[in-house]
Amino acid sequence: MKDSSDRLVWINGSVSAARDATISAFDHAITVGDGLFETIEATGGQAFALGRHLARMRRSAAAMHIDPGYTDDELRVAIDDVLRATPTDGLIRLTVSAGDGPLGSGRYEGASTVIIATAPGKTWDATTDIVTVEWARNDLGALAGVKSTSYAENVLALRRASAVGATEAIFPNTRGNLCEGTGTNIFIEFEGRLVTPPLSAGCLAGVTRELLLEVIDVDEIDVPMAALHNTTEAFVTSTTRDVLAIAHVDGIALRSAPGPLTIAAAEAFAALKADHTDP
Hints:
There is one protein chain. By secondary structure, this protein is α+β, with helices and mostly antiparallel strands. The protein has seven helices and 15 strands. Strand 10 and strand 11 form a beta hairpin. The chain is globular.
């Protein structure tokens, strides 16, 4: 993709070069993290699974009582405009904030801020290493399952992972069960089955997770965090990683990386992507 300063950014219906784009210093996403977002894959000039991302965006917006102010059709047109201006494979970031607000938790309840930007994708190795962190995801909180811009907790967890050469950190929930990564869902072998935490565990309803559940056999069950250290194989999923095998958990090698369950999942997801652009 182009250098970031030369890319075009769509903000509230206006397109400008990224270097010239501005939002208010009082935008509530800036001052208190009061916003939501979607990261969407762009391949061949098309946004993959855009309908599902927009549906999840609407769910997050409803949970946060934020009105994006644009219809899905209007956002599709805006995304197409940005993709035509930067026609290289990569990522699309759709961000919706509550708009201008006070320097505190209250809102002005004015118009939202909507931003569409692009970025290059990342090439991942065949396997990756992860760590676990002790900070619990609040599966009972107001933002459970919401893709909010309040990501500071994720930043700190990923910083810890990066310090030891890992690429992802996995959270428990308040019950000590497996939950999710900073930007991924997790699947593991458990008692011979492929399992993933249910949405009631507090994890995000990942689009890749959702698609994968439709094409392979997976049990959605609560499992203790300790299962991650005893599993024979595991993988994470996300828009940026697709299906990515885990080689080490907290420095301990898994028996298979990738294992047969992971290979089958990766092949099924690759076939789905090859056949669809907006499933």
